[in-house]
Structures are given as structure tokens and as C-alpha cells.
Amino acid sequence: MASDKQDKQFVTEITPQSEDFSRWYIDVIKKAELMDYAPVRGCIVFRPEGYAIWENIQQEMDRRFKETGHRNAYFPMLIPESFFQKEKEHIEGFNPELPFVTEAGGDILEERLAVRPTSETMFGHMYSKWIKSYRDLPVLINQWANVMRWEKRTMPFLRTSEFLWQEGHTAHEDEKDAREETMRMLELYRDFVEDFLAMPVIMGQKTPSEKFAGAVDTYSIEAMMKDGKAVQAGTSHYMGTNFAKAFEIQYLNRDNELEFTHTTSWGTSTRLIGSMIMAHGDDRGLVIPPKVAPTQVILIPIGPPKMRDMVIERADALYAELKAAGIRVSMDDRADVRPGWKFNEYEMRGVPVRIEIGPRDIENGVCLLASRLGGDKLTVQLDNVVNDVKQLLDDVQKGMYERALEFRASHFHSVDNLDEMRAQMEEKRGFFLAGWCGSEACEDTVRAETGATSRNIPFDPQEHKTTCVACGEAAKHTVVFAKAY
Ligand SMILES: [Zn+2]
């Protein structure tokens, strides 16, 4: 076992969350080797440990997209500047963030090419060629890609100039069908984030000032981080016929009349990695939900040198058994590293379950299971170990969701006016439920006075507020306000 001194030394390399949450976050993701800063400002390298998390997210989400009838395609990264001029709100929203290629092969290009920030325009252009008749609809395409937005303030995974994401773009015969798709994908995101990443989210509609540039309606899921701030974990947009009109996506309907399609788009990104870390991590490091963890179980053989061969032989068999059962297991049998150091190391890396096995355990036909969530170690029979490990992984997944739900409940406040909101925000972190009259001026006032922005208008608020938090007039909506990443 590690001495207390060794434990403390180890943990002091990570800034405590209560001291400086952002510092804690950077310490942890660097120490766990998830990322590193790239030479270009605002860009990061996804190191193998970090990319493996993304691959697991991608795999499961992709499976769910395909189950709901979507197919993948790949569209080019470079988009002619003129495409952005076609949808007025879209260009106004994205122009400040667009990087352009202006020169290639030694020549100045006739038309500047934008590095895609999102691909509505490119999909719109291609859909106008492909869609001719109602028989061609709906078109349900998703793309896994990188995108670029020239961000001024960056935070690894949460906001970087280049990031990885998926963007779904669909075209439909009418509003009803397109709106159903918008909600289907929002619900898919909610279920994925809650079930797979163990993060409870609030589903709702964005206010007009926070909606996607060019959308009719934008819906989001919002998650709470451990510093009480919000992260928008996914969005789904109903575009109406805005992009269809800009790109002439027209089709012959069932009465042989020419009509514009109704389109949607929806996206999630590598922000999910950052938000998962900020929602679950603790002062010892990462805590990764078993369903997404690249390593679910770390197996650590223990014992004096003279027993080593015997222990490793049994541990090897155990490793093979767990692996065969579909569990993502690793073994650390390095002889020159103390077990206590290893315990700390894999806790810091967020591995959900640790197995310790030593000579006496083998003699008794048992091994020890430790959960990343803490609590007593479990002694389990080696001949039933697969079931017990699966059960513990399940318990950790559920325990993480419940813990996050409790955290959110204890950081969820209800306020009636600005004075109250300001006073509460000085001493409390979290989300603030408040009434809103619907005017953008009142939203601006809240932002200016408190630093909180409207996150969304929840579909299912715990309480319906009756007066606007800023002006005191009758409230049209109940809104979640919070500081956000
Ligand atoms: Zn108001």
C-alpha cells in the first residue's frame, strides 16, 4: 500500500476544484494525457487517451443514428464564400468566426474558400441537385467531420478553434415531418447523454437571441458542470424553408406542384468530452462513466517478488476471462512501480473499477474490487468474477448519474427579480429558474447585471414563473439562466 505521504504528494499535482475549477480541469486533462496544446492558437491535439473517449461516443451515437434511419456521408471542408451570402442570418452569425483560404498553388483564388464552421450551405447546395420529387424525401444524412470557428477565448474540448463533431442535415416534405425529426434527434441526444455519459440534462427551446443563425427554432440539452456553469451539450434546429429558399431545394409534391423542402440540422461535438469531465471529475482526477470509459477495469497483481510468477499467471487468466466477456480491461503488472502509485494513477485517469489480486486472495479463491466512486472494497469469488464486475460497472454508471442529478438538484434555484438573482448569485453557483417576458432587452439586462445567459426554456420546468425577472411584467416563459462555457 502507498504511504499517506505518497498519496498526498500525488494529489497535490492537481489543483483542488474548490480552489480553482478551471485550473483543476486543465491539470487533469493534461495529466491524464487526454490532450495537448497545438502550435496554432486555439487548437488542441486529441491524444490517444482522449481520442479513445471520442471513438466510444462516436460508435454508440452512430449506432443510434443508423437505428433511426440516418446514413453517413462526407462533404468537402472548403466552402465557396458566396454560399454564405445566400442566407442572411447565417452569414451574420458566422462571419466573424470564418477562416478563409485565399491563396493556393501560388495563385490568389478567384473566390475565397471558407473552412467550414458548419455545413448547412454545402448540404443545401447538394440537396438542391439531388431532390426533385416527394419520392426523394426525406433525405436523412449525417456527417462526422472536423469544423473550424476562429474563437477568441478557448478552453480545451469545450471551445476550440478546430473541433470534431457530427452534423445531421435532413430534408422533408413538410413542417410536421421536419419538426418531428428535430424532436426525434433532440430526444436521441438526451437519451445518449443521460444513459451513456451519465449526465442529466435539461431539454428545452432556445430563446430567439440564442438560436442558431438561420434557424426558425433551436432546441438544446443543457448540462450542469461541477462549478455550477452550464454546457450546451447538443442542439437540434428546425430551419423551416430558410435554407431551402436560399439554395432552391424544391421538389414536386404529391399534387405535382413545386414546393420548398423543410430542413433540419442537429449536432454534438467533442464538447461532450469536456462536459463529461467537468460534470463528474473530483479532486483525485477524472471519473469516467463505465459505458464510455476506454478502460473499464484495471487489473493490478500484488504480492512479494517470490510469489510474483504465480500471481501473474492467475491474473493473466483473469484478464483473459474478463476480456472474453466483452469487458474493456487492462493489466498493469509492472514490477518496478508500487501498487499504491498504480491505485492513484488509475483513479486519476478515471478508470471505473480496479481489481487487486494477491497470493492470499488466490489461495482463498477471491479478488478485491474497488469502485472509482469510493466505498469499501468488495471481496468476490474468482469463479463468479465476470458477473460481479459487470454488476459493479452497472452500479458505478447508475451511481454517477444519481450523483450528478443530486448535485444539479442542490444547485438549482428559483428567483423572482434581479436583486434576488444578483444576491443569490453572489453566494450560490448553479442554474436559476426565472420568468421572462419575451423581450430581448430583458435578456440583455440579466446578462449585463449577473453574467448569466438564458440557457433554454425547459419543456418541463419544476415551476412556472409568472413575472419577468428583469422588468416585472407578466412572464411569457419560464427560463433557465446560468453562466455558461
Ligand atoms: Zn421583461
Automatic annotation (TrEMBL):
Its main location: cytoplasm. Keywords: Aminoacyl-tRNA synthetase, ATP-binding, Cytoplasm, Ligase, Nucleotide-binding, Protein biosynthesis. It is found in: Cytoplasm. Its EC number is 6.1.1.15. GO terms for biological process: prolyl-tRNA aminoacylation. CDD domains: ProRS_anticodon_zinc, ProRS_core_arch_euk. One of its GO terms (cellular component) is aminoacyl-tRNA synthetase multienzyme complex. It comes from the Bacteria. It catalyses: tRNA(Pro) + L-proline + ATP = L-prolyl-tRNA(Pro) + AMP + diphosphate. SUPFAM superfamilies: C-terminal domain of ProRS (SSF64586), Class II aaRS ABD-related (SSF52954), Class II aaRS and biotin synthetases (SSF55681). GO terms for molecular function: ATP binding; catalytic activity, acting on a protein; proline-tRNA ligase activity; transferase activity. Belongs to the class-II aminoacyl-tRNA synthetase family. ProS type 3 subfamily. Homodimer. This is Proline--tRNA ligase.
